[in-house]
Amino acid sequence: MNIEIRKVTQDNIRACAKLEVSEDQKPFVARNLATIAWAYVDQKFTPYAICKDDTVVGLAAVEYISDNEDYDRHWVPRFMIGEQFQGSGYGKIAMEKIIEMITTQHPNCQRVRLSVVPENEGAITFYKKIGFVETNEKIEDENVMDYFVKYVQYEIE
């Protein structure tokens, strides 16, 4: 399956903006235009079109916060697959490719983090299947989940 992660550009922004999730998912997911607009004011925040061949099937955003602690620098603050494309395996492949993109760009990446609305059980289950684990952290009333890329060994004295 040919899934690609491409920066949002003038060529694909309209297709990104048109994508929506189902009505029952809307309380949990930011609108795509809000995600794209956020990147305009925050240089650490980069939106990406999730494409199957030349069709935009989803939208994600990656955030690199260099001032944070090592474990807390790499975030996927937005991730969605359009309602008509859900259930086809695109989301799993796209998230795996996003993690690969982050770790290729940042070889010292320890973990990739995201947050999810606690009531969004479908998303929590989805992220767990990919390998994310729940933490005890909260950010803006959302549960933080981590995908461990590298296991850091600490010496015990």
Shape call: globular
Q: What is the architecture at the second tier of CATH?
A: 3-Layer(aba) Sandwich
Number of domains: 1
The top-level CATH class is: Alpha Beta
The biggest beta sheet reads:
4 strands, antiparallel
Folded structure, characterized:
This protein is of the alpha+beta class. The protein has one domain: Gcn5-related N-acetyltransferase (GNAT) (Aminopeptidase, 3-Layer(aba) Sandwich). 27% of the residues lie in helices and 32% in strands. The radius of gyration is 15 Å and the shape is globular.
Give a quick precis of the structure.
With 157 residues, the chain is α+β, with helices and mostly antiparallel strands. The chain contains four helices and seven strands; from the N terminus they run E-H-H-E-E-E-H-E-H-E-E.
Primary descriptors:
single chain; 157 residues; alpha+beta; Aminopeptidase; four-stranded antiparallel β-sheet; 27% helix
How are the SSEs placed, and which strands pair?
Blueprint: E1 3-7, H1 13-18, H2 32-41, E2 45-52, E3 55-64, E4 74-81, H3 90-105, E5 111-116, H4 121-130, E6 133-139, E7 142-148
